[in-house]
Design goal:
Structural class: alpha+beta
Distance between the termini: 26 Å
Order of helices and strands: EHEEEHHEHHHHHH
Oligomer: single chain
Low-confidence stretches: none
Strand order of the largest sheet: 3-4-2-1-5
Number of strands: 5
């Protein structure tokens, strides 16, 4: 991965941030950088909007790409806005954190968090059909219920806590069957779908546009 210039924010995400890491778990980092505006006008220049490495595991998104992903409330992307601490944080990054609620809208939170959770249930079914690999079934279950809980937090409060308050709830999936997990999922999914939230129907893009305009200034 080439070096990311002008880093706004970066921090540890994934299982470490959730408080669900075990020995040997990967340490994943996610961040946002600003590409200097003149580069967008330079002839013959290819602009990478994501910089990715696997040793170590780091993903950096250019601020324009990050904002577009966050407006769709992509759960992996949104975690960065709610970490307890950051390894790098510029004043522009602090500004973005101050307006992070502007990304949120009811429809995208429901479709993104509910949809990603449903995807984990589908993976559980695939694992059960493939010799019933319990270890991977439990891993998908942890992702599934964390997503539903985070989505519900966003709907209820317009904010979320990345680190889970009750890790024992998630480790209990190690001892549950696929049928038990699926039954619990549908109960939780019904609660999620029926929840009347406080989020607006549309994100507040005016302040986000002001932010982009400023950090992209010549």
């Amino acid at each position: 991965m080439s070096s990311a210039p002008n880093v706004l924010l970066s921090g540890v995400v994934g299982s470490t941030a959730f408080g669900l890491a075990r020995a040997g778990s990967d340490i994943d980092r996610l961040g946002i950088f600003i590409r200097p505006t003149p580069e967008f006008f330079r002839i013959g220049t290819k602009h990478e909007d994501s910089l990715v490495s696997t040793a170590p595991d780091v993903t950096m998104h250019e601020v324009g790409k990050y904002v577009n992903l966050a407006l769709k409330c992509n759960p992996t992307i949104m975690d960065l806005m709610y970490l307890e601490s950051y390894e790098q944080q510029s004043w522009e990054g602090e500004w973005l954190l101050d307006i992070r609620e502007d990304f949120l809208s009811e429809g995208y939170v429901r479709s993104a968090y509910g949809g990603y959770a449903m995807g984990q249930i589908k993976r559980i079914k695939q694992e059960l059909a493939n010799e019933g690999r319990q270890k991977r079934v439990a891993k998908h279950a942890r992702h599934c219920f964390r997503l539903l809980r985070q989505g519900q937090q966003l709907l209820d409060y317009g904010s979320l806590t990345v680190k889970v308050p009750d890790p024992e709830f998630y480790w209990a999936f190690d001892d549950m069957t696929g049928d038990q997990i699926e039954a619990e999922f549908w109960k939780a999914f019904d609660v999620f779908n029926d929840r009347v939230g406080i989020l607006p129907q549309q994100p507040r893009t005016d302040r986000l546009q002001d932010f982009i305009n400023y950090v992209r200034r010549l």
